[in-house]
Amino acid sequence: MKISTKGRYAIKIMIDLAENQKDDFIPLRDIASRQNISEKYLESIIKILVKNKMLLGLRGKGGGYKLVKNPDTYTIADILKVSEDSIAYIESFEDETNSTSSYKTIKMWNKLNSLIDEYLSGITIADLICEDPGNDYVI
């Protein structure tokens, strides 16, 4: 499984907004500065998040970005599904042969994909910003 920087940064953006959002919109440059990520790259990721209605954007003075919903409603799986080109954690099986052993391995890989998706669907942005020292999530 390989999650690209686009997916990882999308999660970082969502965490940053959740931690720093009051009532105002947060400028892109502030997010980029705190996360030490180029504004240009963040812009392309934020466009995806806005297009998928995870963020609200406002142009002009006082503009920036904010979460549309509460942090506890955004799962890591949801964020990755919109930010990654493909959400399959294990590569496609189209090139597999129709042998019995291939069929058995395809079932195994599909089950692994399901388990990973179930796990990531159980983690929210709120979980990641929780102050609990027992939190063992790493991004």
TrEMBL record:
Pfam families: Rrf2. InterPro entries: Tscrpt_reg_Rrf2, WH-like_DNA-bd_sf, WH_DNA-bd_sf. One of its GO terms (molecular function) is DNA binding. One of its GO terms (cellular component) is cytosol. It comes from the Bacteria. Keywords: DNA-binding. The keyword DNA-binding applies. NCBIfam families: rrf2_super. This is Rrf2 family protein.
